[in-house]
Amino acid sequence: xxxxxxxxxxxxxxxxxxxxxxxxxxxxxxxxxxxxxxxxxxxxxxxxxxxxxxxxxxxxxxxxxxxxxxxxxxxxxxxxxxxxxxxxxxxxxxxxxxxxxxxxxxxxxxxxxxxxxxxxxxxxxxxxxxxxxxxxxxxxxxxxxxxxxxxxxxxxxxxxxxxxxxxxxxxxxxxxxxxxxxxxxxxxxxxxxxxxxxxxxxxxxxxxxxxxxxxxxxxxxxxxxxxxxxxxxxxxxxxxxxxxxxxxxxxxxxxxxxxxxxxxxxxxxxxxxxxxxxxxxxxxxxxxxxxxxxxxxxxxxxxxxxxxxxxxxxxxxxxxxxxxxxxxxxxxxxxxxxxxxxxxxxxxxxxxxxxxxxxxxxxxxxxxxxxxxxxxxxxxxxxxxxxxxxxxxxxxxxxxxxxxxxxxxxxxxxxxxxxxxxxxxxxxxxxxxxxxxxxxxxxxxxxxxxxxxxxxxxxxxxxxxxxxxxxxxxxxxxxxxxxxxxxxxxxxxxxxxxxxxxxxxxxxxxxxxxxxxxxxxxxxxxxxxxxxxxxxxxxxxxxxxxxxxxxxxxxxxxxxxxxxxxxxxxxxxxxxxxxxxxxxxxxxxxxxxxxx
Length: 596
Ligand SMILES: Nc1ncnc2c1ncn2[C@@H]1O[C@H](COP(=O)(O)OP(=O)(O)OP(=O)(O)O)[C@@H](O)[C@H]1O
Ligand SMILES: [Mg+2]
What we know:
Layout: H1 13-18, H2 21-24, H3 28-62, H4 65-114, H5 117-122, H6 125-144, H7 146-167, H8 169-176, H9 179-216, H10 218-223, H11 227-280, H12 285-297, H13 299-326, E1 349-356, E2 369-376, E3 381-386, H14 392-398, E4 407-412, E5 415-416, H15 422-428, E6 429-432, H16 443-448, H17 457-466, H18 492-504, E7 510-514, H19 522-536, E8 540-544, H20 548-551, E9 556-561, E10 564-569, H21 571-577, H22 579-585
Parallel strand pairs: 3-8, 3-9, 6-7, 7-8
Antiparallel strand pairs: 1-2, 1-4, 4-5, 9-10
The chain binds adenosine-5'-triphosphate and magnesium ion.
Magnesium ion binds next to helix 14.
């Protein structure tokens, strides 16, 4: 669940919507033209009552059939003009607005790629998905319709009211009677609707998360027979969302009731009053006809205000949700200010007094890593051992700067990684994590992701050989075989070996492996190790390991304990001298040489 839900209390919908301007700017000419065309179209409609008046007071009163036909022709032409103009408006806005939507969507995607891992730890994926889909669709609809029509209908109502007042100001005032209660209702409605709209859109996000998790975790759900409880959880969320949507509908129904009924009553009153005055001879029949048909022509613009406001509120909420993500600070390319200095001759991978605590760790809790000092010499491979949960994965994630150190520094060949452009850093350091993530593309592309542009077949083959992933050649389409989403069509060990191949394919200077061989059988592990030794010969490596067989791959071992590097040495040294290490490694065939 995101912890950043804004309060909707003190928000101005207009101010929020104004933030869309930079995206709308490129298409502003079209939008303004469209709005202008719509205003002209709408006002064309208002000319119709005036023609009616002319027909009633002129040809009808004079019993002139030719004049009536002529009037009818005018009406027809006006109707056609109105329809054509509205058609032009639609044509004007459709394309540029889908462009705006696409721009905003790729902006969001780009931002998501650049936001730090800490952000993604904090946000539910469904919330991000729904922002990129539902919310942006709401925004496009808003720009296409309510934005223009709030303006167009506003102008139409204004012009219509002026026309009515000019026809007869007494009747005009009768019609204007409900204006104040209607405006008050709109204001109240807007405030309440804003709150419910925000809730509904957040709930769509939560629902998306549940759907996404249950699709990705379908094996667990089936394996544990949890489909019923999962379905129940889904149903509950869906019911909550339904409740919120119904609340929206009720609010909309209420405002609609007020907005439709009050003006209707006013028109009725004006009709009675007007009829009496026509009978008295104080008003011409044509004027009354024109007046009433103007009032009727204004019915749609007034009625529509309710849902136009509703759609605008939803758009404001969508904008707010969109910018909640866009306002997050992305990773800076490099941290300025820290001198990229390092002691001359100081090479390899060095942790200096590194402290780290997760930004979302409970306040007051001690840092996970309190004081890490470690030096991995150039070309050396260092195994990192520690109890589960001791922070090994966290420590390795600091090297490619997936998380930023809280204090202290990490240097690569003497250069502070904080002062290195991220691109450069990530070109130097290759990683493979505990859970091997594959993308739904071909095996080859998955592996070559770890190589610089232009790497080809030979690099791929070499990396597959090192990682003992030659099974890839035996797949139906060889390395062009697509792996399913998350690589679920492969075995765990196969996925791990592909991830390993991805880490070594770019011949990185520094290699960070988080327990890369855990899923392999002993023979395959031995084969990978033998091949890795060649790669590791000129690569500086930090390898998290749980099994002695993996540890033996490394030149030296570091023991992580209590947030510090408690001991460094060879496997056999540590087995002899460190009881914690001996305990961690016990249960394996590699018995310590008995010093006695
Ligand atoms: N994103 C996070 N936010 C807050 N705490 C986290 C986060 N990720 C991990 N932790 C906590 O940090 C601690 C260390 O986790 P880490 O994954 O580094 O352990 P590990 O040594 O790799 O364990 P294992 O051997 O089981 O892989 C754990 O207690 C975990 O709860
Ligand atoms: Mg781990």
